[in-house]
Amino acid sequence: MDLDTRALIAIFVGIVVIGIWLSQRHGKTSNNKSSGSKKLKSRPNTSNNATAVNNPTASNPPTNTANAPTNPNTASPAARGRRATSRRRTPAKKVNSKYVPAFGIWQINSSAIGTVVANAISSGYVEFDSSDNYGNEAELAVALNSHNVKRIYTKIDPIHYNNIIPSIQTAQRLFQGSGQLVIMLHWPGETTIQGSVAFPGANGVAAYRNLARLISRPAVSNFGVSHLTRISRIKKPYLNQIEINPLLQQTEIIRYCKKRNILVQAFSPLASGRLNTNPIVVDIASKHSKSVAQILIRYAYQKGADIVNVKTTNLSRMQENLDINDFVISKHDMRRLNGLRDDASYLLGTSNSAPSPQVFGPFQKQVRRPVPSAPPLGRLGYHLNRRLKRIRTAGRTLINTP
Ligand SMILES: NC(=O)c1ccc[n+]([C@@H]2O[C@H](COP(=O)([O-])OP(=O)(O)OC[C@H]3O[C@@H](n4cnc5c(N)ncnc54)[C@H](OP(=O)(O)O)[C@@H]3O)[C@@H](O)[C@H]2O)c1
Q: What pLDDT score does 328 carry?
Protein backbone atom coordinates (compact mmCIF):
# COMPACT_ATOMS: atom_id res chain seq x y z
CA MET A 1 0.00 0.00 0.00
CA ASP A 2 1.57 3.31 -1.01
CA LEU A 3 1.79 6.41 1.19
CA ASP A 4 -1.11 8.23 -0.52
CA THR A 5 -3.50 5.32 0.04
CA ARG A 6 -2.52 5.09 3.71
CA ALA A 7 -3.00 8.87 4.16
CA LEU A 8 -6.43 8.64 2.51
CA ILE A 9 -7.47 5.76 4.81
CA ALA A 10 -6.26 7.72 7.86
CA ILE A 11 -8.29 10.79 6.78
CA PHE A 12 -11.37 8.62 6.16
CA VAL A 13 -11.11 6.95 9.58
CA GLY A 14 -10.70 10.40 11.17
CA ILE A 15 -13.85 11.69 9.45
CA VAL A 16 -15.78 8.59 10.53
CA VAL A 17 -14.71 8.98 14.18
CA ILE A 18 -15.61 12.71 14.22
CA GLY A 19 -18.90 11.87 12.50
CA ILE A 20 -19.81 9.28 15.15
CA TRP A 21 -18.92 11.68 17.94
CA LEU A 22 -20.91 14.55 16.41
CA SER A 23 -23.98 12.45 15.75
CA GLN A 24 -23.99 10.98 19.27
CA ARG A 25 -23.64 14.44 20.71
CA HIS A 26 -26.42 15.76 18.53
CA GLY A 27 -28.67 12.84 19.54
CA LYS A 28 -28.14 13.57 23.24
CA THR A 29 -28.82 17.29 22.89
CA SER A 30 -32.06 16.86 20.98
CA ASN A 31 -33.23 14.14 23.40
CA ASN A 32 -32.64 16.41 26.36
CA LYS A 33 -34.40 19.29 24.70
CA SER A 34 -37.46 17.33 23.72
CA SER A 35 -38.03 15.42 26.96
CA GLY A 36 -37.56 17.87 29.80
CA SER A 37 -40.45 16.44 31.82
CA LYS A 38 -39.31 12.85 31.31
CA LYS A 39 -35.89 13.80 32.61
CA LEU A 40 -37.50 15.23 35.71
CA LYS A 41 -39.41 12.00 36.29
CA SER A 42 -36.42 9.75 36.05
CA ARG A 43 -34.20 11.94 38.16
CA PRO A 44 -33.62 10.47 41.62
CA ASN A 45 -35.40 12.26 44.42
CA THR A 46 -32.20 13.27 46.10
CA SER A 47 -31.31 15.38 43.09
CA ASN A 48 -34.70 17.06 43.34
CA ASN A 49 -33.40 18.46 46.57
CA ALA A 50 -30.27 19.55 44.80
CA THR A 51 -32.48 21.56 42.47
CA ALA A 52 -33.65 23.52 45.47
CA VAL A 53 -30.13 23.91 46.82
CA ASN A 54 -29.09 25.41 43.52
CA ASN A 55 -32.27 27.41 43.19
CA PRO A 56 -31.16 30.75 41.82
CA THR A 57 -34.23 32.47 43.21
CA ALA A 58 -33.70 31.13 46.71
CA SER A 59 -30.72 33.25 47.61
CA ASN A 60 -30.77 31.91 51.17
CA PRO A 61 -32.14 28.37 50.94
CA PRO A 62 -33.19 26.53 54.10
CA THR A 63 -30.67 24.42 56.03
CA ASN A 64 -32.55 21.28 55.26
CA THR A 65 -32.42 21.61 51.49
CA ALA A 66 -29.16 19.75 51.80
CA ASN A 67 -28.64 16.68 49.69
CA ALA A 68 -29.45 13.28 51.03
CA PRO A 69 -26.52 11.40 52.47
CA THR A 70 -25.94 7.94 51.14
CA ASN A 71 -25.46 4.80 53.10
CA PRO A 72 -22.78 2.69 51.45
CA ASN A 73 -23.84 -0.34 53.49
CA THR A 74 -27.42 -0.39 52.26
CA ALA A 75 -26.93 0.73 48.65
CA SER A 76 -26.43 -1.77 45.86
CA PRO A 77 -23.42 -1.30 43.54
CA ALA A 78 -25.83 -0.35 40.76
CA ALA A 79 -27.48 2.27 42.96
CA ARG A 80 -24.06 3.59 43.97
CA GLY A 81 -23.17 3.88 40.29
CA ARG A 82 -26.38 5.74 39.53
CA ARG A 83 -25.79 8.12 42.40
CA ALA A 84 -22.23 8.74 41.25
CA THR A 85 -23.62 9.71 37.83
CA SER A 86 -26.19 12.08 39.30
CA ARG A 87 -23.50 13.60 41.54
CA ARG A 88 -21.44 14.36 38.47
CA ARG A 89 -24.43 16.02 36.83
CA THR A 90 -25.02 18.33 39.81
CA PRO A 91 -21.54 19.44 40.84
CA ALA A 92 -22.80 22.26 43.04
CA LYS A 93 -24.39 19.82 45.54
CA LYS A 94 -23.20 20.26 49.10
CA VAL A 95 -21.20 17.50 50.73
CA ASN A 96 -21.63 16.43 54.37
CA SER A 97 -24.79 18.46 54.80
CA LYS A 98 -27.91 16.99 56.32
CA TYR A 99 -31.66 17.26 56.63
CA VAL A 100 -32.88 19.23 59.64
CA PRO A 101 -36.70 19.30 59.84
CA ALA A 102 -38.50 22.49 60.80
CA PHE A 103 -40.23 22.40 64.17
CA GLY A 104 -44.04 22.84 63.92
CA ILE A 105 -45.95 24.34 66.83
CA TRP A 106 -49.56 23.62 65.83
CA GLN A 107 -51.61 22.17 68.74
CA ILE A 108 -48.98 22.99 71.35
CA ASN A 109 -50.52 24.65 74.37
CA SER A 110 -49.44 28.29 74.56
CA SER A 111 -48.39 27.83 78.19
CA ALA A 112 -45.99 25.04 77.18
CA ILE A 113 -44.40 26.87 74.24
CA GLY A 114 -41.49 28.37 76.24
CA THR A 115 -40.24 24.97 77.46
CA VAL A 116 -40.96 23.13 74.21
CA VAL A 117 -39.15 25.71 72.07
CA ALA A 118 -36.17 25.80 74.44
CA ASN A 119 -35.96 21.97 74.20
CA ALA A 120 -36.30 22.10 70.42
CA ILE A 121 -33.49 24.63 70.11
CA SER A 122 -31.20 22.65 72.40
CA SER A 123 -31.99 19.51 70.35
CA GLY A 124 -30.80 21.25 67.19
CA TYR A 125 -33.90 22.70 65.45
CA VAL A 126 -33.14 25.96 63.67
CA GLU A 127 -36.44 26.58 61.85
CA PHE A 128 -39.93 26.99 63.33
CA ASP A 129 -43.33 26.78 61.68
CA SER A 130 -46.24 28.77 63.06
CA SER A 131 -49.47 30.50 62.06
CA ASP A 132 -51.56 33.42 63.22
CA ASN A 133 -54.39 30.98 64.02
CA TYR A 134 -52.46 28.47 66.18
CA GLY A 135 -53.09 30.50 69.31
CA ASN A 136 -49.44 30.33 70.37
CA GLU A 137 -47.63 32.57 67.90
CA ALA A 138 -47.01 35.43 70.34
CA GLU A 139 -45.57 32.91 72.82
CA LEU A 140 -43.29 31.53 70.10
CA ALA A 141 -42.04 35.05 69.38
CA VAL A 142 -41.26 35.53 73.10
CA ALA A 143 -39.53 32.12 73.31
CA LEU A 144 -37.40 32.91 70.26
CA ASN A 145 -36.56 36.38 71.45
CA SER A 146 -33.32 35.49 73.15
CA HIS A 147 -32.28 33.12 70.34
CA ASN A 148 -31.47 34.04 66.79
CA VAL A 149 -32.80 31.06 64.84
CA LYS A 150 -32.32 30.60 61.14
CA ARG A 151 -35.85 30.89 59.85
CA ILE A 152 -39.46 31.27 60.98
CA TYR A 153 -42.38 30.33 58.76
CA THR A 154 -45.75 31.81 59.55
CA LYS A 155 -49.15 31.84 57.88
CA ILE A 156 -51.96 34.32 57.55
CA ASP A 157 -55.44 32.91 57.96
CA PRO A 158 -57.97 33.48 55.12
CA ILE A 159 -60.24 35.49 57.41
CA HIS A 160 -57.63 38.26 57.14
CA TYR A 161 -57.25 38.13 53.34
CA ASN A 162 -59.47 41.08 52.58
CA ASN A 163 -57.46 43.28 54.94
CA ILE A 164 -54.11 41.51 54.95
CA ILE A 165 -51.65 44.35 55.44
CA PRO A 166 -52.08 44.64 59.27
CA SER A 167 -51.52 40.86 59.56
CA ILE A 168 -48.28 41.08 57.58
CA GLN A 169 -47.11 43.94 59.77
CA THR A 170 -48.00 42.04 62.97
CA ALA A 171 -45.91 39.03 61.88
CA GLN A 172 -43.00 41.29 60.98
CA ARG A 173 -43.20 43.06 64.32
CA LEU A 174 -43.48 39.81 66.30
CA PHE A 175 -40.47 38.11 64.77
CA GLN A 176 -38.30 41.14 64.18
CA GLY A 177 -34.69 40.21 64.93
CA SER A 178 -35.45 36.51 65.57
CA GLY A 179 -34.36 35.15 62.19
CA GLN A 180 -35.44 35.26 58.57
CA LEU A 181 -39.24 35.45 58.28
CA VAL A 182 -41.25 33.67 55.57
CA ILE A 183 -44.91 34.74 55.47
CA MET A 184 -47.41 32.61 53.58
CA LEU A 185 -51.13 32.54 52.79
CA HIS A 186 -52.52 29.58 54.76
CA TRP A 187 -55.07 28.47 52.15
CA PRO A 188 -55.96 29.58 48.63
CA GLY A 189 -59.08 31.38 49.83
CA GLU A 190 -62.63 30.18 49.57
CA THR A 191 -61.46 26.58 49.84
CA THR A 192 -64.09 23.92 50.10
CA ILE A 193 -63.48 21.81 53.18
CA GLN A 194 -65.61 18.75 53.84
CA GLY A 195 -68.36 19.96 51.57
CA SER A 196 -68.68 23.55 52.80
CA VAL A 197 -67.03 26.80 51.86
CA ALA A 198 -64.70 27.44 54.75
CA PHE A 199 -63.76 31.03 54.12
CA PRO A 200 -66.54 32.79 52.21
CA GLY A 201 -65.40 35.94 50.46
CA ALA A 202 -61.69 35.39 51.17
CA ASN A 203 -59.93 36.64 48.08
CA GLY A 204 -56.66 34.71 47.87
CA VAL A 205 -55.54 36.42 44.66
CA ALA A 206 -55.93 39.95 46.03
CA ALA A 207 -54.27 38.89 49.30
CA TYR A 208 -51.35 37.38 47.40
CA ARG A 209 -50.99 40.54 45.30
CA ASN A 210 -50.61 42.57 48.51
CA LEU A 211 -48.22 40.03 50.04
CA ALA A 212 -46.05 40.06 46.92
CA ARG A 213 -46.06 43.87 46.93
CA LEU A 214 -44.91 44.09 50.54
CA ILE A 215 -42.40 41.27 50.96
CA SER A 216 -39.70 39.93 48.69
CA ARG A 217 -40.45 36.21 49.18
CA PRO A 218 -44.21 35.75 49.18
CA ALA A 219 -45.13 32.18 50.09
CA VAL A 220 -48.29 30.07 50.11
CA SER A 221 -49.68 26.92 51.67
CA ASN A 222 -52.16 24.29 50.45
CA PHE A 223 -52.02 25.72 46.94
CA GLY A 224 -52.74 23.33 44.07
CA VAL A 225 -51.37 23.59 40.53
CA SER A 226 -54.22 25.81 39.30
CA HIS A 227 -53.74 28.20 42.22
CA LEU A 228 -50.00 28.36 41.69
CA THR A 229 -50.47 28.97 37.97
CA ARG A 230 -52.84 31.84 38.70
CA ILE A 231 -50.71 33.64 41.29
CA SER A 232 -47.49 33.13 39.35
CA ARG A 233 -48.86 35.71 36.91
CA ILE A 234 -48.46 38.21 39.76
CA LYS A 235 -45.15 36.82 41.07
CA LYS A 236 -43.78 33.31 41.38
CA PRO A 237 -44.20 32.20 45.01
CA TYR A 238 -41.06 31.43 46.99
CA LEU A 239 -42.50 28.37 48.69
CA ASN A 240 -45.61 26.18 48.90
CA GLN A 241 -46.33 24.30 52.14
CA ILE A 242 -48.45 21.19 51.56
CA GLU A 243 -49.31 17.94 53.29
CA ILE A 244 -46.99 15.13 52.17
CA ASN A 245 -47.01 11.56 53.43
CA PRO A 246 -47.49 8.15 51.79
CA LEU A 247 -51.28 8.56 51.98
CA LEU A 248 -51.30 11.96 50.26
CA GLN A 249 -48.30 12.24 47.95
CA GLN A 250 -49.02 15.45 46.02
CA THR A 251 -46.87 14.29 43.12
CA GLU A 252 -48.33 16.74 40.62
CA ILE A 253 -47.87 19.78 42.88
CA ILE A 254 -44.31 18.74 43.78
CA ARG A 255 -43.41 18.27 40.11
CA TYR A 256 -44.89 21.67 39.26
CA CYS A 257 -42.94 23.40 42.05
CA LYS A 258 -39.65 21.64 41.27
CA LYS A 259 -39.88 22.64 37.62
CA ARG A 260 -40.26 26.29 38.60
CA ASN A 261 -37.87 26.43 41.56
CA ILE A 262 -40.64 26.92 44.10
CA LEU A 263 -39.55 25.41 47.43
CA VAL A 264 -41.74 22.59 48.73
CA GLN A 265 -42.41 22.41 52.46
CA ALA A 266 -44.14 19.31 53.80
CA PHE A 267 -46.50 19.20 56.77
CA SER A 268 -48.08 16.25 58.60
CA PRO A 269 -45.35 13.83 57.43
CA LEU A 270 -46.54 11.37 60.10
CA ALA A 271 -50.07 11.32 58.61
CA SER A 272 -51.60 12.07 62.02
CA GLY A 273 -50.40 8.72 63.36
CA ARG A 274 -52.39 6.67 60.83
CA LEU A 275 -49.37 4.75 59.63
CA ASN A 276 -47.92 3.94 63.05
CA THR A 277 -48.81 0.25 62.81
CA ASN A 278 -48.89 -0.16 59.05
CA PRO A 279 -47.00 -3.43 58.31
CA ILE A 280 -45.12 -1.98 55.30
CA VAL A 281 -43.87 1.06 57.21
CA VAL A 282 -43.05 -1.09 60.26
CA ASP A 283 -41.12 -3.55 58.06
CA ILE A 284 -39.06 -0.77 56.42
CA ALA A 285 -38.41 0.78 59.85
CA SER A 286 -37.12 -2.49 61.30
CA LYS A 287 -34.93 -3.05 58.24
CA HIS A 288 -33.12 0.22 59.01
CA SER A 289 -33.41 -0.09 62.82
CA LYS A 290 -35.37 3.17 62.76
CA SER A 291 -38.76 4.25 64.06
CA VAL A 292 -41.86 4.64 61.90
CA ALA A 293 -41.64 8.41 62.43
CA GLN A 294 -38.07 8.51 61.12
CA ILE A 295 -39.04 6.52 58.02
CA LEU A 296 -41.97 8.85 57.31
CA ILE A 297 -39.94 12.05 57.74
CA ARG A 298 -37.26 10.62 55.46
CA TYR A 299 -39.98 9.62 52.97
CA ALA A 300 -41.20 13.22 52.69
CA TYR A 301 -37.66 14.40 51.90
CA GLN A 302 -37.11 11.66 49.35
CA LYS A 303 -40.44 12.55 47.71
CA GLY A 304 -38.98 15.97 47.00
CA ALA A 305 -39.77 18.15 50.02
CA ASP A 306 -37.10 20.77 50.66
CA ILE A 307 -38.31 21.37 54.21
CA VAL A 308 -40.30 18.96 56.40
CA ASN A 309 -42.28 20.22 59.41
CA VAL A 310 -42.65 17.92 62.35
CA LYS A 311 -44.19 18.59 65.74
CA THR A 312 -43.71 16.94 69.10
CA THR A 313 -43.75 18.11 72.69
CA ASN A 314 -41.62 15.16 73.80
CA LEU A 315 -37.87 15.78 74.17
CA SER A 316 -36.70 12.30 73.14
CA ARG A 317 -38.98 12.38 70.07
CA MET A 318 -37.56 15.79 69.14
CA GLN A 319 -34.11 14.17 69.00
CA GLU A 320 -35.43 11.05 67.27
CA ASN A 321 -37.04 13.15 64.53
CA LEU A 322 -33.68 14.75 63.75
CA ASP A 323 -31.88 11.42 63.48
CA ILE A 324 -32.76 10.74 59.86
CA ASN A 325 -29.48 11.26 58.06
CA ASP A 326 -27.74 7.90 58.31
CA PHE A 327 -29.99 5.89 55.98
CA VAL A 328 -31.73 6.08 52.62
CA ILE A 329 -35.06 4.47 51.75
CA SER A 330 -34.37 2.30 48.70
CA LYS A 331 -36.27 2.79 45.46
CA HIS A 332 -38.03 -0.52 46.06
CA ASP A 333 -39.21 0.56 49.52
CA MET A 334 -40.21 3.99 48.22
CA ARG A 335 -42.44 2.16 45.73
CA ARG A 336 -43.97 0.11 48.55
CA LEU A 337 -44.69 3.29 50.51
CA ASN A 338 -46.08 4.96 47.39
CA GLY A 339 -48.46 2.01 47.13
CA LEU A 340 -50.18 3.19 50.34
CA ARG A 341 -51.52 6.29 48.59
CA ASP A 342 -55.24 6.99 48.98
CA ASP A 343 -55.27 10.70 48.13
CA ALA A 344 -57.12 11.76 51.25
CA SER A 345 -55.81 14.50 53.47
CA TYR A 346 -55.63 13.23 57.02
CA LEU A 347 -55.77 16.74 58.29
CA LEU A 348 -59.11 17.70 56.80
CA GLY A 349 -60.61 14.39 55.82
CA THR A 350 -60.40 15.20 52.13
CA SER A 351 -57.88 16.67 49.72
CA ASN A 352 -57.54 20.33 50.65
CA SER A 353 -55.85 21.36 47.44
CA ALA A 354 -58.98 21.59 45.32
CA PRO A 355 -59.18 24.81 43.32
CA SER A 356 -61.62 27.45 44.48
CA PRO A 357 -63.36 28.61 41.30
CA GLN A 358 -64.99 31.66 42.88
CA VAL A 359 -61.65 33.40 43.34
CA PHE A 360 -59.28 31.62 41.03
CA GLY A 361 -61.49 31.11 37.98
CA PRO A 362 -62.12 27.74 36.32
CA PHE A 363 -59.49 25.06 36.65
CA GLN A 364 -56.84 25.64 34.03
CA LYS A 365 -55.81 22.70 31.96
CA GLN A 366 -52.06 22.36 31.55
CA VAL A 367 -51.24 22.75 27.87
CA ARG A 368 -48.32 20.65 26.73
CA ARG A 369 -46.23 22.22 24.01
CA PRO A 370 -45.75 19.90 21.03
CA VAL A 371 -42.29 18.39 20.90
CA PRO A 372 -40.49 19.71 17.78
CA SER A 373 -39.73 16.80 15.47
CA ALA A 374 -37.19 18.64 13.29
CA PRO A 375 -33.70 19.22 14.74
CA PRO A 376 -32.92 22.76 15.91
CA LEU A 377 -31.18 23.83 12.66
CA GLY A 378 -34.27 23.24 10.51
CA ARG A 379 -33.85 21.62 7.08
CA LEU A 380 -30.07 22.04 7.05
CA GLY A 381 -29.86 20.31 10.45
CA TYR A 382 -32.15 17.56 9.23
CA HIS A 383 -29.92 16.76 6.22
CA LEU A 384 -26.76 17.06 8.31
CA ASN A 385 -28.23 14.65 10.83
CA ARG A 386 -29.06 12.09 8.09
CA ARG A 387 -25.54 12.37 6.68
CA LEU A 388 -24.05 11.88 10.13
CA LYS A 389 -26.24 8.84 10.66
CA ARG A 390 -24.99 7.34 7.38
CA ILE A 391 -21.36 8.06 8.32
CA ARG A 392 -21.96 6.50 11.73
CA THR A 393 -23.40 3.33 10.17
CA ALA A 394 -20.51 3.17 7.70
CA GLY A 395 -18.03 3.68 10.54
CA ARG A 396 -19.61 0.88 12.60
CA THR A 397 -19.46 -1.47 9.61
CA LEU A 398 -15.81 -0.57 9.07
CA ILE A 399 -14.94 -1.07 12.75
CA ASN A 400 -16.83 -4.38 12.98
CA THR A 401 -15.33 -5.76 9.78
CA PRO A 402 -12.61 -8.20 10.77
N1 LIG B 1 -49.95 24.63 56.39
C2 LIG B 1 -50.86 23.88 56.96
O3 LIG B 1 -52.05 23.91 56.61
C4 LIG B 1 -50.47 22.97 58.08
C5 LIG B 1 -51.33 21.96 58.50
C6 LIG B 1 -50.94 21.11 59.51
C7 LIG B 1 -49.69 21.27 60.08
N8 LIG B 1 -48.86 22.26 59.69
C9 LIG B 1 -47.55 22.47 60.32
O10 LIG B 1 -46.79 21.26 60.25
C11 LIG B 1 -46.44 20.82 61.57
C12 LIG B 1 -46.41 19.32 61.62
O13 LIG B 1 -47.62 18.75 61.21
P14 LIG B 1 -48.61 17.96 62.21
O15 LIG B 1 -48.49 18.54 63.56
O16 LIG B 1 -49.92 17.90 61.56
O17 LIG B 1 -48.15 16.50 62.13
P18 LIG B 1 -46.85 15.62 62.43
O19 LIG B 1 -45.69 16.41 62.85
O20 LIG B 1 -46.76 14.78 61.23
O21 LIG B 1 -47.36 14.75 63.64
C22 LIG B 1 -47.49 15.25 64.92
C23 LIG B 1 -48.03 14.14 65.81
O24 LIG B 1 -47.13 13.03 65.80
C25 LIG B 1 -46.63 12.78 67.12
N26 LIG B 1 -45.20 12.50 66.98
C27 LIG B 1 -44.21 13.37 66.68
N28 LIG B 1 -43.01 12.76 66.64
C29 LIG B 1 -43.26 11.45 66.91
C30 LIG B 1 -42.44 10.30 67.02
N31 LIG B 1 -41.13 10.36 66.84
N32 LIG B 1 -43.03 9.12 67.32
C33 LIG B 1 -44.35 9.04 67.50
N34 LIG B 1 -45.19 10.09 67.42
C35 LIG B 1 -44.64 11.29 67.14
C36 LIG B 1 -46.92 14.01 67.92
O37 LIG B 1 -47.24 13.66 69.25
P38 LIG B 1 -46.40 14.22 70.52
O39 LIG B 1 -46.42 15.71 70.46
O40 LIG B 1 -47.15 13.66 71.67
O41 LIG B 1 -45.02 13.65 70.40
C42 LIG B 1 -48.16 14.57 67.21
O43 LIG B 1 -49.32 13.94 67.73
C44 LIG B 1 -47.50 21.49 62.45
O45 LIG B 1 -47.09 21.58 63.79
C46 LIG B 1 -47.65 22.83 61.78
O47 LIG B 1 -46.58 23.68 62.12
C48 LIG B 1 -49.23 23.11 58.68
A: 97
Q: How remote is the CA of residue 40 from the centroid of ligand 1, in Å?
A: 30
Instruction: Give the pLDDT score at 260.
Output: 98
Residue of the CA atom closest to atom 17 of ligand 1: 268
- The amino acid present at 295, given as its one-letter code, is I
Count how many residues are written for the chain: 402
Taking the C-alpha atoms of residue 236 and residue 262, their distance in angstroms, rounded to an integer, is 8
pLDDT at 375 over 80: no
Region of residue 386 (phi > 0: left; psi between -120 and 50: alpha; otherwise: beta): alpha
State the pLDDT at residue 399: 57
Type of residue found at 319: Q
How far apart, in whole angstroms, are the C-alpha atoms of residue 397 and residue 363? 55
Q: Return the best residue to mutate from 272, 312, 348, 351 for the ligand 1 pocket (most ligand atoms within 8 A of CB).
A: 312
Lowest mean pLDDT among 47-61, 120-134, 256-270, 384-398: 47-61
State yes or no: pLDDT of 246 exceeds 80.
yes
pTM: 0.71
Is the CB of 129 inside a 6 Å radius of any atom of ligand 1? yes
**336-359 confidence digits (pLDDT tens):** 999 999 877 666 544 444 444 445
pLDDT in tens, 6-29: 767 777 777 777 767 766 655 444
CB-based burial of residue 196 (10 Å sphere; 0-12 exposed, 13-18 middle, 19+ buried)? exposed
Report whether residue 109 contacts ligand 1, using a CB cutoff of 6 Å: no
Q: Is the CB of 269 under 6 A from ligand 1?
A: yes
